[in-house]
Amino acid sequence: QKEVEQNSGPLSVPEGAIASLNCTYSDRGSQSFFWYRQYSGKSPELIMSIYSNGDKEDGRFTAQLNKASQYVSLLIRDSQPSDSATYLCAVNLVYGQNFVFGPGTRLSVLP
Amino acid sequence: GAVVSQHPSWVICKSGTSVKIECRSLDFQATTMFWYRQFPKQSLMLMATSNEGSKATYEQGVEKDKFLINHASLTLSTLTVTSAHPEDSSFYICSADLRDSNEQFFGPGTRLTVL
Question: Most buried of A23, A32, B31, B70, CB within 10 angstroms?
């Protein structure tokens, strides 16, 4: 079983819609959860981090964490074509140690 | 803040040569840096974890004698690809751990092409 799983997509949404990206992880002891955005040919850029159950909002982005279900999601409101990228979910088992990345979900926002 | 740089941003070399890639944390000290490799249309693959002043920890399947990592200071880690071959052509990305926040920040990456 893969440690961090994501739907590879592509996920296509119309401009202005809500994009919902999902991620599940296998290790119940995971402590920290991150969403990165990666444009083609570029390195990943941190969007959100979340450490406790519930929602965390930052602008158009909302991260949701449910540790009981081992599930973390990212919602992008009012999606823009510039949001088209691959979104990587990362999970950290032990504070200060390496992350485990999911395979990424490719999002395409259609104008 | 939390800016990580890499140099060079791209390099083309002949098969059999060695290539050194530098990763620097510009505005913070990073006790831990990570080296990743990414092939086209694939996700990041962790190669090794580099701690300042100690030997790097390599992931399974990564040859430590081929990918030499040196983390000589709190702001600099280097990856040397020795005797590079075409199959080593990839996008190499480093990241640095911002200790107090447990967040990783990535450098811009180095695209290596071995002819």
Answer: A23
Q: Is A33 on the interface with B (CB under 8 A)?
A: no
What CA–CA distance (Å, rounded) separates A67 from A95? 16
Q: Do B101 and A49 touch (CB under 8 A)?
A: yes
pLDDT in tens, B19-52: 999 999 998 888 789 999 999 888 889 999 988 8
**Is B106 in the A-facing interface, judged by CB distances under 8 Å?**
yes
- Burial label for A45, CB within 10 Å (0-12, 13-18, 19+), is middle
Q: Which residues contact B9 (CB under 8 A, 6 or more apart)?
A: B108, B109, B110, B111
**Residues in chain A closer than 8 A to B107 (CB atoms):** 43
A71-98: pLDDT as tens digits = 999 999 999 999 999 999 999 877 666 7
Please spell the DSSP secondary structure of B39-57, one letter per residue: -TTS--EEEEEEETTSPPE
Closest partner CB to B102 (pick from A41, A92, A104): A92
Search chain A and give the residue with CA nearest B41.
A40
Gyration radius from chain B CA atoms: 13
CA nearest to A31 within chain B: B102
Question: Quick check: A36 and A21 in contact, CB under 8 A?
Answer: no
